[in-house]
Amino acid sequence: MWWLAVACANLVGPNVPAVFQQPAEKFCQEEGHCAGPFAAIEVWNDTHGAPRRLVLTGDLSQCSHVSTRVYDEQLKELWAAGDRPVSVEDADARTKEREAVFAGMTRATSATCGDLGLGKK
Fold first, then answer.
1. Which residues is 111 bridged to in the sheet?
2. CA gap 88, 50 in Å, rounded
3. By C-alpha distance, which of 113, 88, 91 is closest to 37?
4. Which residues contact 32 (CB under 8 A, 6 or more apart)?
5. How far apart are CA 16 and CA 106, in angstroms?
6. Burial readout 72-95 (b: 16 or more C-beta within 10 A, e: otherwise)
7. How would residue 108 be classed by pLDDT, with cut points 50, 70 and 90?
8. 56 C-beta neighbours (distance < 10 Å), count
9. Residue 101 to residues 11, 23, 79, 96, 111: CA-CA distances in angstroms?
10. How far apart are CA 10 and CA 27, in angstroms?
11. Is the alpha carbon torsion for 102, 108, 114, 117 positive or negative?
12. 117 alpha-carbon distance from chain centroid
């Protein structure tokens, strides 16, 4: 079962690839993004294992309406969603948009600002 420990160690933790390190740190330190120890950072890789998506989600302990934003490796925003009510039609459309952004991707790293030692305390 050693392989399970290795797989989990590679999935969860402060292993943010260099291409996304600076934006992740900036996100964790900016007040406008509901920064806090529980703000979430995810990195998604393509089929070749290269980091292609950065997902940033605010900390609900810091503000009531956090957003989730998805960026590509050039830091172009690809998708965003706020924590607000939407109609069933809007939810279905937004889900399809999100699925398209992540097509062929796998989650590689998941961490919080607290894991990185960053963010409002």
1. 41
2. 34
3. 113
4. none
5. 15
6. eeeeeebbebeeeeeeeeeeeeee
7. very high
8. 25
9. 20, 19, 7, 9, 20
10. 22
11. negative
12. 16
* Sign of the four-CA dihedral 50, 111, 37, 82: positive
Q: What's this model's pTM, rounded to 2 decimal places?
A: 0.81
| Structural tokens at position 79 | 């998708």
- The 10s digit of each residue's pLDDT in 52-74 is 999 999 998 888 888 899 999 99
What is the secondary structure of the chain as a DSSP string? -HHHHHHHHHHBSS---HHHHHHHHHHHH-GGGT-STT-EEEEEE-TTS-EEEEEEE--TTT-SS-EEEEEETT--EEEEEESS---HHHHHHHHHHHHHHTTT-EEEEEEETTTTT-S--
**What tens digit of pLDDT does each residue of 5-22 get?**
333 333 334 578 888 988
Phi, psi of 76 (to 5 degrees): -85, 130
